[in-house]
Amino acid sequence: MKLVNEKSKAGSSSFPIKELDIKSNIPAGLQRTSLTVPTLPEVEVVRHYTNLSKANFGVDNGFYPLGSCTMKYNPKINEVVANRPQFSIHPLSRENRLPLKIIYELEKYLCEITGMDAFSTQPAAGAHGELTGTMIMKAYFEKRGEKRTSVIIPDSAHGTNPASVSLCGYQPVQVRSSSAGGIDLVDLRQKMDKTVVGIMITNPNTLGIFDENILEITQIIHDHGGLCYLDGANMNPMLGIVKPRDFGIDLIHLNLHKTFSTPHGGGGPGAGPLGVIKELEAFLPNPRINENLEFENSEESIGSVHPFCGNFGILLRAYAYIRAIGAAGLRKVAENAVLNANYLKEKLKKHYHLQYDRTCQHEFVIDDSLMPNGVTTHDIAKRLIDFGFHPPTIYFPLIVKGAMMIEPTETETKENLDAFIDAMKVIKEEASDDPQKVVKAPLNAPIGRLDEVRAAREPKLTWCRDEE
Amino acid sequence: MDYIANTDLERESMLREIGVKKIMDLFHDIPKELILSTPLNIPGPFSEFELLSELHKISTQNRPTLSFLGGGNYNHYIPSTVKAITSRGEFSTAYTPYQPEISQGTLQALYEYQSMICEITGMDVSNASMYDGATSLAEAMLVATKIKGKKRVLASKAINPLYREVLKTYANVAEIEIREVDCQDGLTSDFDTEGSSAILIQNPNFFGLLEDLNTIRERAKDLLLITSTTEPLSWAMLQPFANSDVDIVTAEGQSFGNPISFGGPGLGIFAAKKVYIRQMPGRLVGETVDIQGKRGFVLTLCAREQHIRREKATSNICTNQGLCALAAAVYLVTYGENLGELARLNNQLAVYFSEQLQKIEGIDLVFNAPFFNEFIVRIDKGILLKLTDVEIGINLERYYPDLKDCYLVCCTEMTPKEIIDRVIHEIGK
Ligand SMILES: Cc1ncc(COP(=O)(O)O)c(C=O)c1O
């Protein structure tokens, strides 16, 4: 499809501006002499983006089992709430009680759900929460006068975990997974000592396994004076079932854009609020909101990681979601997410290799090791597109070769799960009978398989005027 | 209310297929003593109607006021096209376009966004968004110290004080020293470049004033010049940054089609010279072809990113502000080349308001340098008392103790001449 820059037609904007007869105070030398912005009449603007949207696939289009991303249905009422004009308010306005009240209440809900003592909504996404949490751990040990230099991170962890701790000058130390898919306790004991800040752990982990040794793991860390950070991206299967605080977690971030149903926006925005135990509360980012609904600063705070309260528009959606479904609804979310995942897993393991064959929580990981004719996970993913599904997360976690990480979420119907299972079965058959079909896929997507190597070899990141 | 799609009957048949009796059997890996025995203390469930009427009830507590608040968050009109497009589920309910064959909508729109940012700023490359203006500037600071190898940067005191807080937080853990550069008459004054990797300048600066970037560039010969902008509408009127040989341009893009929303979500803009491509944080969309040679778009140069490079990545960012970048793109295309006129209108309104205010006894313009759509006035306390329904500006004393009784006043097309005249009339009463 043509680029908007290629369609641009000077003088065609439907948005004329009436300037005033007032002379600018800006000297001519500082003003630009020309401005190029693609220009289209309104009808063409709308058609351009509407047609682009047709080449896109979201949860509203169909099943999107992208593991670790919790692509659940995003209720439309959330949007109605977030778009209310009353929330389009300046953060320094003196009429700020309503947003502050909502943020304050949301913090309380998140405390109740996780068992933590205090939350900050400032982090704009999960990785931002990890960074903020690591800053707090650093401030905590500095205050205690302890020099600790590394953070333990399991080999199954998401890439943001090591990236976040290294931004704080810490060395990530990898701890092995056991053959059962949990953390290898022997390895953990060996690596934990008083030079280690603690652990950044994901539980249930990226294999979808709830580590049955979790109490022992957090005990080992605490025995050496360390802190336990939970990457709470996978909170969905724990809602109303178990509180992370109860298994020894000291800090946790939540991904509101996963567990709490806010839309993923084609990459964002999300929100990654951070919760901590009482002992760490004073280090949370400034400003906090006190019970009188005023901004308040703490002397010991790490500072700010965002100018105000983070992505308020996203917080609103999560707030609406939590209230809409209530305590009983939250627990149902967890139960049905786990039910759907186990159902899919049991059906798919008859056709695909399942390295960790045990009960899963919100997701599970199969791989391509049983595929004939050299058909790979990449091929399977592309072929799934032809069947009308978004592919799973692929080649992650790194500890499963050719991984396909599948997370159906609680909002998917059994009919959709069955259709997905059928498609996976057919793809397996095609791989042996007609591999070309799979290797060349997708065959009926808006575009064929794209050359990613070429894009990286000769990067072309902007449209240039002389292309016309 | 809940959003669970299966019936009890279906649940039973699924449990049978799995081979367990009840759902709780699937949670057997969790130590028994941890399983909650009582429901969470959370209100609800509420129907849609109940949710909305509750909000309606508490919303009447919010008195509407006339606002001239800016300073990083701007009240601009958002054309109807923007919401119409960004609320399409195909865009809003998708995630990061890891599977380009069914994500061409997001990818092409972001590629066009990157192209527009480059055209307006004159820079070579733009990424697909950062969290916001403050973190975008902080990440630019990290990039600069990696490129130059010196763990010190200079930062003008005319950078938004809240951004400087974020900078300090990031610098603190990265062990970077930030040397703040003083201001004279509201503009960044001279500085010593010895031992620093970069100089960070906001333009228009926090006081609304236009910095002399060419002179700063000359003084900062061996340093990276990094800019921050909180009001990018000014770009449509001012010389592009590339003309002042800026190395990295960062900005808060909220002004482009995103509502104020109590400070977030906004749009972190990050653009740079080509030589820094491989040091850039965030997603980059690039052009390529499919197996038939047809043009298409993919995420590219991923070897910089956390999912490939892990602890050696240029940044830890993963989820960004994609939909806000889409909003910006639709906004820009809707105004098109008329964006220049919109910028001039904003500037004219600010000039007009500042002139009218100065005529009033007890109100003075604090700085004399040219500004875009924000300026600072000192206002006598007595006058302020008259402005019960107007938020005239951001009180600056909390950030700059010297600027007692000073307010940062912002005009946009949402504060047209009639409103300004009304306010002036009220003060004169
Ligand atoms: C397990 C896990 N941790 C961390 C993250 C990072 O979160 P975000 O993308 O919101 O920064 C993600 C998702 O992307 C994730 O799946």
Task: Give a verbal description of the structure.
The complex is a heterodimer of chains A (468) and B (429). Chain A is α/β, with parallel strands linked by helices. Chain A contains 13 helices and 13 strands. Chain A starts with a helix and ends in an 11-residue tail after the last helix. In chain B, 34% of the residues lie in helices and 16% in strands. The longest helix of chain B has 20 residues, at 339-358. The radius of gyration of chain B is 25 Å and the shape is globular. Chain B has 13 helices and 17 strands. In chain B, a hairpin with a 5-residue loop joins strand 11 (285-289) and strand 12. Bound molecules: pyridoxal-5'-phosphate. Pyridoxal-5'-phosphate binds at residues 68, 125-127, 158, 160, 202, 206, 231, 233, 255, 270, 272 of chain A.
Structural key phrases:
heterodimer; A: Aspartate Aminotransferase, domain 2; Aspartate Aminotransferase, domain 1; 3 domains; seven-stranded mixed β-sheet; four-stranded antiparallel β-sheet; 10% strand; B: 429 residues; alpha/beta; Aspartate Aminotransferase, domain 2; 2 domains; binds pyridoxal-5'-phosphate
In short:
By secondary structure, chain A is of the alpha/beta class. Chain A is 35% helix and 10% strand. Chain A has helices at residues 4-7, 42-53, 76-82, 97-114, 126-144, 160-167, 185-191, 214-223, 312-348, 377-386, 414-433, 435-439, 452-457, and strands at 118-120, 150-154, 171-175, 196-201, 227-232, 251-254, 274-276, 288-289, 295-296, 353-354, 364-367, 393-394, 403-406.
**What does the overall shape of chain B look like?**
globular
> In angstroms, what is the radius of gyration of chain A?
25 Å
Architecture (CATH level 2) name of the largest domain in chain A:
3-Layer(aba) Sandwich
Structural class call of chain B reads alpha/beta
User: How do the helices and strands follow one another from N- to C-terminus of chain B?
Assistant: HHEHHHEHEHEEEEHEEEEEHHHEEHEEEH
